[in-house]
Amino acid sequence: MPGQLRDYFVVLPDSAAGAAAAGQLPVPGAAAGRSAAPGATGSAREVGGTLTVAHPSGRPWIVARPLVRKVSHLARGEDALVLIGPDRVPDAVLAGILEGTRDRTGLEHRLARLPGLYHVVARLSGRSWIRGTATGLRRIYHARHPTAGTIASDRPAVLARLIDAPLDESALALRLLDFLPHPLSRRPVWRGVHETGAGYGLALPVAAPGTAAVPGPTEHRWWEPPPGELPLADGARKVGDAVAASVRAHVGGLDRISCELSGGLDSTALAFAARDTGPASLSLLTVAARDRYSEDETWARRAVEAAGGTAATTTRTDGAAPAARNHGAAPAARNGHAAPAPDHRAAPARGRHPAPALDHHVVPAADAPYFYADLASTAAELNDEPLPVAPGRARAELLLGRARATGSRYHLTGYGGDEIFLGLPHAYQDLFHGNPFTAWSHFGGLRHQLGWPLLPTVKALLDRSAFPRWLAGAVTAAPQPVARTPLLSWGVRQSLHPWLTGHATALIAEEFRAAAEHAEPIDPWRGRHVDIDGVRMGARHFQAMEDIGMTIGLPVAAPFYDDRILEATLAVRLPERISPWRYKPLLVEAMRGVVPDALLARTTKDHMASDEHQGLREHAPELTELWTGSRLAEHGLVDSRQLLRLAAEPFSPVLVEHSISSTVAGETWLRTAENAWSAPQSTL
Predict the structure, then answer these.
(1) What Cα–Cα distance (Å) separates residue 177 from each residue in 250, 391, 444, 499, 667?
(2) Distance between CA atoms of residues 307 and 292, nearest Å
(3) Which residue of 146, 618, 669, 681 has the lowest C-beta tally within 10 Å?
(4) What is the mean pLDDT of residues 612-626?
């Protein structure tokens, strides 16, 4: 069944109905049961790749299918702690967190010692506490089962199957926008399924024995952005430690790993951090650009040379790569955790590990698919929602396939670096509070770089509209603003695509209006609100890359989406964290001593806009086929005739002003979702 290649977990109430719901979950073929990892004290059992952690009654509490992630669990009496993430947490560390914990506040205080990459499920005094990550990389959903009551999961599709949920037409229409701002991004595409906000957790009440008549779940905030008070030097040390800990949590102890090395600062930083974990083999992969003015490949080769790697190998056009060398068996345990002390993630001394065998593989530009290639391949996964990155799936699959061919057991990417360290123009608004002279100096530099006229800039700065008012007008039928329009306020105002129907635009307008009635910003400061929302949007989109990796059998990670990295970044004084005169100054200082200074000096960034526009021409037949018999058109959301005309005119000015990516993503996702159940699920 499409969509069941992904991992998932479900949290169930302690009732007969909850146990019955567990039997309805999608599972692989039956296999003999075996006990779970040590430390479970008989409370968990694994059958055919599906792990079940039990309530004290013996009924299923958590049912997990961890294809890639590791499940760490420990019970002490009736209390229990389960962490689901990239690495197994030692039982002694779990015990140090769980013992003495009386409530979720105490639990969260102790969890702050770990990298912020884990789903957390705890049972304290009979109540279940479930939460994801503050970055939104890991999310929580819940739904009301007709007999079992509230059920929670990290995958909305699994809940939708359990409650037989139909698609939500309004939520699907929202996904046709280029991006969804907070809080509309929390709207699942199935009716009856609800997403818990990032930074919030879900408390499930105790069910009465044998019944589902219990109160609904409650959300509680567990994460607050830290104040921006640290000087750059102190913040850089915290960021550097957080980056090292996040990378170790993903690949520490593995013998063969790989990194995408685009040549940009983000991927270069991760490549050197990965080298410091001491793998036997590190493969670095670079996709050559078609643009002759691109600098990425040049900088990637410089990074490999500085790291002491071998000369670049150009992979063959048939997709094969040189056979990976045999560096011996993998370590008996991949454990980045030290002894069970409070600071068990302290970084090892540099130079402790021998240098790995480092290979550089360059994918020729001619081999790299254009965007919109092989759109049918998206049927292999059912994402949590339509994601605008779907048109680039073939490119991602090529790179990950080449990485897997090197023998890599885990692949790292620099996704999240821009959102975390670059800083959007909106952030400069916050500088005016407390030190307007410094703020105007910084803002003046930014204004001249972006070509913003003085009077419109001043007018935008003086606009103090509240968040609900901004949200109500965040979408418009008017054309996109010109490039020199100041980008400020609570986000970016976006234009509706001309191929959306009147029905779709009405649904979108109503959703924004309704959300604005009760909307609260993520943070009272506009810049911090936009920064955090951007991070969460990027983390949500990265899900598509994780899905591709699971499909081909290679775990993929974006360590920058670790909560600890976000916290350390936001804790730095804003004028030092971002600057119009320095490129990602916080990341540069954080990686000084890890990445050679010559590589930290890069201040440019390449883009692939030409590959997207060329992809519209190269794959016009596929787009024509996509819009012929469009499912979105059947639901009355898009004008398929206009989309067919645009497929025949790939260089139309309409496609220069409006991106078609989100519409392509919505169409391909909808076709996959319709095939994910034995019977059609739709309200339309």
Answers:
(1) 33, 15, 32, 11, 13
(2) 25
(3) 146
(4) 92
Task: Concatenate the DSSP letters of all residues of 536-559 into one string.
Answer: HHHHHHHHHHHHHHHHHT--EE-G
Tokens 């919109």 -> residue: 372
Q: Which residues touch 185 (CB under 8 Å, ≥6 apart)?
A: 533, 536, 537, 540
The first and second tokens of residue 502, run together, are 């009147």
Average pLDDT in the 568-582 region?
Answer: 93
The CATH T-level fold of domain 8-221 is Glutamine Phosphoribosylpyrophosphate, subunit 1, domain 1 (3.60.20)
Instruction: Give the model's pLDDT for residue 680.
Output: 35
C-alpha 101, offset from chain centre: 30
Tokens of 383: 């994402």
More confident call, 496 vs 610: 496
Cα separation values, 573 from 171, 402, 419, 431, 676, Å:
38, 41, 17, 10, 48
Q: What single letter denotes the amino acid at residue 525? A: W
DSSP H stretches of helix in 464-525: 467-472, 502-518
The confidence score (pLDDT) of residue 611 equals 81
pLDDT of residue 321: 40
Question: Average pLDDT in the 188-196 region?
Answer: 96
Which tens digits make up the pLDDT trace of 624-646? 999 999 999 999 999 999 999 99
Tokens of 536: 């969460």
Q: Where in the chain is the domain with CATH 3.60.20?
A: 8-221
Residues in the chain: 684
Distance between CA atoms of residues 25 and 584, nearest Å? 45
Contact 176/169 with Cβ under 8 angstroms?
no
Interatomic CA distance for residues 564 and 137, integer angstroms: 13
Q: Is 137 helix (H, G, I), strand (E, B) or coil?
A: coil
How far is the C-alpha of 114 from the C-alpha of 346, rounded, in Å? 10
Angle at 559 (CA atoms; ends 558, 564), nearest 5 degrees = 135
Mean pLDDT, rounded, for 150-168: 94
**8 Å CB contact between 175 and 540:** no
As given in the structure block, the two tokens for residue 494 are 């976006």
Looking only at the bridges linking them, the beta strands covering 149-153 and 140-145 are antiparallel
Residue 71 near residue 84, CB atoms below 8 Å: yes
Q: Does residue 458 come out as left (phi exceeding 0), alpha (psi in the -120 to 50 range) or beta?
A: alpha
The answer, yes or no, to whether the previous bond of 183 is cis (omega within 30 of 0) is yes
Token readout for 421 is 């360290």
Largest CA distance in the chain: 72
**Strand 411-412 with 256-260, pairing:** parallel
Report yes or no on whether pTM surpasses 0.85.
Answer: yes
Q: Measure Cα distances from 272 to 199, 240, 363, 411, 569 in Å.
A: 30, 12, 21, 14, 20
Quote the pLDDT of residue 265.
94
pLDDT beyond 50 at 173: yes
Task: Give CA–CA dist 646/623, Å, rounded.
Answer: 9
